[in-house]
Each structure stands twice: as structure tokens, then as C-alpha cells.
Amino acid sequence: MPSESQDFFDIHKASVRRAMVLLALGALTGLAIAGYGLFTARGTRSRDVPPEAIALVNQRPILRSDFMTQAQTQFSVPFAQTSHEERLRIVRDMINEELMTQRGLEIDLPSYDPDVRNALVAGVELEVTADVLARQPTPEEMHAYYDEHTDRYSSEGVMQLRDLEIKTDATHPSASARTTVAAAIAALRAGTPVDTVVAKFTLVDSGRFMDAGQVDTGDILQFAVRAKVDDAIYNATMPLKDGEVSEPIEEGDGVHLIYMIKHRLPVAQTFEKAANNVWSDLKREAQDKVNAANIAYLRSRADIIVAPDYAR
Amino acid sequence: VLIIFGLFADLWRSERALPGEMLIAEPARILGDPMLLRKAVRIGKPQFERLCASCHGGALQGDPARGVPDLARHAWLYGNDPIEVERTILYGIRSGHPKARNVTDMPALIRTGQITKEDGDDAIEFLLSLAGQPHDEAAALRGRSIYYNKGNCYDCHASDAKGVNDYGTPALTGPVYLYGGDRKTLYLSILNGRHGECPAWIERLTALQIRALALYMVSATSVPPRS
Prior knowledge:
With 312 residues, chain A is α+β, with helices and mostly antiparallel strands.
């Protein structure tokens, strides 16, 4: 009777053991190939460089077109006149650049390098605003914009003023301060010099308009006044003409009066004078709109979770 | 039957090899190879008619109203080297693509206050003098100074005002102008600046179509390419 080991090697005879061994070998080979592909990520990679590329760096193509342009730019001669060595150098440089770029992404450079982040932000903004930048506003659009925003197109108003007050506290309750300020206003309106009134009624400068530690009684641009005072004082200040005094204005720190020394009101510009600014503003506004729409779109598809203390 | 089969097999083989052949060969070599060029034109021309002719015109004559150059009269802003043309088609001009051609654009010299309206008028007389058009001699002399000094125009348009391909700046000497060479159009260019665009086709066409398109456009204008 032939032994079982003899049947194993005789392919003319059936052998259960041989069948099991072959099955196991097949399964192991399959697993090894799958494992290699899975753990090295090389299972799907291409070994051929596509015709439009000069190289594949981690499967990312470097286009022939970019390569030829780079060669022409670097050597300042038509591509046909570059030598083989020069071309090889360009290929090497471009591969190195691609490797560095991929490394930058691998170590997540954009997440912490401010220069890379700024470059990315600028690049995305330029990409979304390209159409807007290219478009020139028509004269009709410029006129319509000017008519809609005439308040923006005027020379800047300038004023010289004093913001005087009686501070309110336990010794100067609000009612008493109001009475004193009203008397000071009456004196100023009667033509008493401002310094005399300040001394007589013990008024103090509010400290809002200072220049190098001194009260600023020089020219102050309207926008600067707007930035330094609240609505109540600004609204009381704007209508005042040269030498006029406001009504008493009650604020948290005391009762104020505004004495206008000189007020040069803003002068509206004609369309012709304002056209250059209208043109710039229109373009900037269109750019801002596109940027805002882009941010809104990005936010709409992003998963943003804000800490509870800054959620609103 | 064998001969016919052989012919078809050869045709099939050459068609299959075409993309590789067309993309690997240097564009200048394709221009000099009638058979390859014919194949490029066969692929490129329909793409031009489908995508480019609406702006560039069926005969590549351009459109001054939109600042589309007259390629038929060789007003190639970036030169007619097929490599440069291919790059323009791939990434566009101020298209928003990060690799788009965007080195410079015509600033709004008067709007931004770099020069005055009077300076602009003088510069225009100078440009008309370069083009051999009727002009005011005294104003042209003043305009010359604006061109080379205050306006800094020579920096992009070159000392001879013939434009610079590296920047994509047009010639200002005529007879072909990008937007028109009359006083009014020149004034509008100086007043508002210009910012022409060409879309990037890299996402919409294959590499082969783009190469063929570039070769078709260069060959259709029948002038030896120059960088």
C-alpha cells in the first residue's frame, strides 16, 4: 500500500493533504499581497509617468508644461535651446520643490506657520475676487453709487472746541452741577471769555481732547471727534457754529458743555471731483461682498464649535 | 482581408499612440512636423471654435471692446511660443488660478492720482507721435517726460513702447492696439486702468486638448514662434 507522502507528490492521485496545503498557500499569498498593498499604500500606485507629466512625486504629477516654462524662465532661452543637463537640473529642482511642499503639508505647516497661513489666505482671496478685480465699473454704476453715498464724498470737517464739565459726585450732585453748567453756558453766550468762565464756575476739561498731555485747542478733524465722543456729545457738537455753546449734556461722569471755538463744516464734492474715490470704493465694496459671500459659504459647510463663553 | 485588417490595426495603433506622441514631443518640433501638426489641428480647432472663438473671434481677430488681442495680426501679449501659449490656456490670465499670469496690470493712473488728467492727455499725444498719428508736438514732448518719469509707463511697456512679453504688456506703437488707439480709448486706459482676463482651462480640458489648442492657435497665425 503506497504511503500518504507518496500520494502527496503524485499529481495523478487525489490527496486531501495536498489540497489543503495548496489552499493554505493560496490564501497566504493573497493575504501577503493584500497586506503589502494595505500597509505600504503601494497597491494602487502607478508605475508609468503619464505623457503630460515629466515626473510623478508620490503620485503627484509635475506637468511638462510647467517644466518647459520653468526651463525657459530660468535659462532665459527658448526651451529648444536648453541643454539636456539644464533640463535635468530643472527636473531635479522641481522634484525637490514638490517634495518640500508635500513635506510642508505632511507636517501641517499651514496650521502654525504665520507666513504660510498669510500666503494661503491671500491666495484664496485672490482666487475668489479675480472676477471683481477685473471688472471696471461703468459710468452709470459710478453715478448711482455716488448718489447713494453723497455723505462719503465731502472734504473733512475741522473744529476747535472745548469739552468742559462739572464732575458729579457726593459734593456735586447732578442737579447742582446742571445748574452751574447752565449758568456757565449763559455767561459764555453773553460773551464772557471762555477762560474766565472756566475759572469762575470751576469747570474742568473732560480730558477727551488732549495733545501731549495738554488740552488740545487746535484743529481736530471731524472723524477724530467722532471717534472720541459718544452719540449724545457728538450730536450736540455737530450743529454748533463758531462761538456757539451747546445745551448741558448729562453723562455718566458729570454734566458737560461744548464750546465751539471754530467749526469748518465739510464741503460736499461734485461727482467729477469724487470720481476717483467713487471708483475705488465701488471696487473695494464689490471685493468685500465677494469675500463675505465666500466666508459665508465656507462657514455654511464647516463644522465650527465655539466655546460656550464665546458662543454668542 | 489581411491587408485591410493590417491597415485598421495600424490606424488604431497610431491613434492610441497619439496622445503620448503629442504630449512628449517638444511643441516646436510638432510645429515643424506636418503630420503631427495636422493631428494637433484636428483636435485643437474644434476646441477653439467651441470655447475660445466667442472672445477671440473665429479668425483670431480679437475684440478691442473687451481687450481681446488681435492674434491674427500677431498681437500676442505673452509671445507666440507654443509653450507660453499653452501656459496661458492652462492657467489663464488673472483667472484666479494661483498659477495664472498676473505679474502686473495696467494701473488706474489718473484715478489713483499718480498723474493728472493733463498729464494723461500729454502722454496720449506722445503715444500718437510714436504711432505716426497726427498729434500736438508740444504736448507730445511733455508726454514723453510723463512716459519715462512721472507715469513710469516705460517700466512695463518698454523704453520703445513695444510691450514686454514677460509682463504681457501690449505695444503702444500701433497699428494694432489691445483696446484701441484713439484718444478716447487711450484716455480710458490711463484713467481707469485695464485688467483683462482669460479663463484657466486646466480643469476643463485634457492635457492633449490644451497642447493641441495651443498648436492650432500658433499655427493659424502663420508666423514663426518667438519667445
